[in-house]
Amino acid sequence: MPIVIDENLDPSLYPLAWLVGAWEGTGAVQLKGENGEEVGHAIEQRLTVTPNSAKGLTWVMRTWVLNSPAPEPPTSAFYEKGEEKSDASQQSTDTTLVRELLLEEKGTWRTTGVLPGQDEEAAKNAKPGSPESYLSHGVSLTMERSSAFGEAPAEHWAGEVRGPRIQLATQDLAASSGAAGSDDSHGARMFGLVGGRLMWLQEVGSSLSNLRPYLSVELNRAADEDVKEA
């Protein structure tokens, strides 16, 4: 279906219009265990993506780790077999579930224009919302992260957005993610809008050709005030 675009959005950000808003949901993360092994944990995540005055989108993400088993299999739109409240800790009212703040990211998304080698005229004449109507645009995400494992320097991610899909990669992944590998300097992120839900995952590894799952979430749209008060 066609992506609804806010007329007040800067035209350079139209390819990212579907990302704008407040989102919340759950997923799984792989963290370093006591013996250096990877241990799966359930997580809760909330994020906001809002236009700013610098022709970018401000990204604010918070992720809490929960004291419950990680979902099996990891919930993600990108796995082959299908889809399936800012205190440091908070206790649920109906169980003894406790959550602790794991990650907080703040950054800016920008687009860098239409990537070369595409038929722009054909896309313009195609049915809105069809695969043929989408063009690939360059996209970047520059962010800083704080976590339970320490502060991190700025990270620079780059890739492309095509319709309701984004692929990003970085070669300067900060070591404060809590992943088990000691040489996890590379990372990839994939985002998708599926049935009105925002699904995204991150993979980490020693190179872009040697990545493994790190984080995966499925998010629903939320009221802005609910996320801001979390």
Automatic annotation (TrEMBL):
<protein>
    <recommendedName>
        <fullName>THAP4-like heme-binding domain-containing protein</fullName>
    </recommendedName>
</protein>
<feature type="region of interest" description="Disordered">
    <location>
        <begin position="74"/>
        <end position="94"/>
    </location>
</feature>
<feature type="domain" description="THAP4-like heme-binding">
    <location>
        <begin position="13"/>
        <end position="221"/>
    </location>
</feature>
<feature type="region of interest" description="Disordered">
    <location>
        <begin position="112"/>
        <end position="135"/>
    </location>
</feature>
<dbReference type="InterPro" id="IPR012674">
    <property type="entry name" value="Calycin"/>
</dbReference>
<dbReference type="Pfam" id="PF08768">
    <property type="entry name" value="THAP4_heme-bd"/>
</dbReference>
<dbReference type="InterPro" id="IPR014878">
    <property type="entry name" value="THAP4-like_heme-bd"/>
</dbReference>
